[in-house]
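Incident log, support desk, overnight shift.

02:14 A customer reports that sequence design results differ from what the structure should imply. Their input is reproduced verbatim below. On-call engineer (initials T.W.) acknowledged and began investigating.
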């Protein structure tokens, strides 16, 4: 993994099947011209798409683009933060309560509400080592690191969710919705039971079905074949169980991986339903700008093949701070304390890479 001693390459994307690393000069490219420019120069496009679908993507053609095997890392201890902010977040619990009230009034069916955790450092943080920790701890995730536009900050994460992969016209999308903690240090039987309880949860199954049906409808205009399993499957990450459905099909002629990803972004799994109502409520109830959190990260080659993952289990990093993001799907049955605890568990995915506890 090419890095300096303390900072990674400008763009690193490691999936369970491959890695993509961009180095050298990065030439920005408009989203509408991305595929044509990639074909013109004979290389690929990499970058980030914000959560807000109305905002411009941050895409660029790198001077060098290297494809290889999945990357590995090694975990090492990092400097501990001098301060943790918003570990306990009463405002988040209040926002969940307000959202549930709006649902009971019939305004919407679901909204995803997120919160932040900030760590501040007096001893400079080694960003290359943070990425190495993520690669070591999350070997089955979509691990990414991207230098943010106009700064020396990085967005890093280990996403469990593939939004869209296309290769030779065939595509896969694997939405996750519905979450439960795993019994990491406990009895394997207990861990399996927690997964089975998630599969039987009416709340989580309904939440998951909403996501799948939304994706089915949004892919219809860009797909000529679409296969949607009737029942979700259990997906395990090191900390959590999720419900997931692997949807496959074939893209319509002329469509690229970026077209497919854009067609379904943002899904109810990261936004809510109905989408426009959920977007407005997120803007009203969240006290920060999501930016690229909940957006997309990935790459596309000159043929339109590529992979785009959801920007989850992530943080924005500098040498002096780390801002961690996590969200939870809120429905009528949601309880503020439980959703606060769920987001705490999700924050723990990145917290573990930093060596900090996110439990409040």
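02:41 Re-run completed on a clean worker. Output:
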């Amino acid at each position: 993994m090419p890095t300096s001693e303390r900072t990674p390459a400008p763009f690193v994307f490691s999936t369970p099947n491959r890695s993509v690393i961009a180095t050298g000069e990065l030439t920005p490219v408009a989203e509408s011209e991305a595929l044509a420019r990639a074909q013109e120069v004979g290389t690929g496009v990499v970058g980030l798409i914000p959560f807000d679908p109305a905002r411009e993507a941050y895409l660029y053609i790198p001077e060098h683009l290297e494809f290889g095997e999945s990357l590995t890392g090694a975990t090492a201890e990092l400097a501990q933060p001098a301060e943790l902010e918003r570990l306990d977040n009463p405002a988040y619990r209040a926002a969940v309560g307000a959202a549930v009230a709006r649902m009971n009034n019939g305004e919407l069916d679901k909204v995803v509400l997120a919160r932040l955790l900030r760590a501040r450092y007096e001893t400079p943080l080694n960003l290359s080592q943070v990425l190495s920790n993520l690669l070591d701890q999350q070997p089955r995730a979509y691990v990414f690191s991207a230098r943010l536009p106009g700064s020396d900050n990085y967005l890093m994460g280990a996403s469990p969710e593939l939004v869209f992969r296309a290769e030779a016209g065939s595509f896969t999308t694997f939405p996750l919705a519905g979450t439960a903690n795993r019994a990491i240090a406990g009895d394997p039987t207990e861990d399996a039971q927690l997964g089975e309880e998630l599969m039987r949860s009416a709340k989580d199954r309904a939440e998951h079905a909403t996501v799948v049906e939304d994706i089915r409808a949004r892919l219809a205009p860009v797909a000529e074949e679409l296969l949607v399993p009737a029942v979700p499957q259990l997906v395990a990450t090191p900390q959590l169980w999720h419900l997931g459905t692997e949807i496959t099909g074939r893209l319509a002629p002329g469509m690229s991986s970026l077209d497919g990803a854009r067609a379904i972004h943002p899904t109810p799994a990261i936004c809510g339903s109905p989408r426009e109502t959920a977007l407005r409520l997120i803007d009203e109830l969240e006290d920060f700008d999501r930016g690229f959190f909940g957006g997309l990260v990935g790459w596309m080659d000159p043929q339109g093949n590529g992979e785009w993952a959801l920007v989850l289990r992530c943080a924005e990093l500098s040498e002096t701070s780390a801002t961690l993001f996590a969200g939870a799907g809120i429905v009528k049955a949601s309880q503020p304390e439980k959703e606060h605890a769920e987001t705490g568990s999700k924050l723990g995915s990145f917290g573990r890479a930093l060596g900090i506890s996110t439990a409040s």
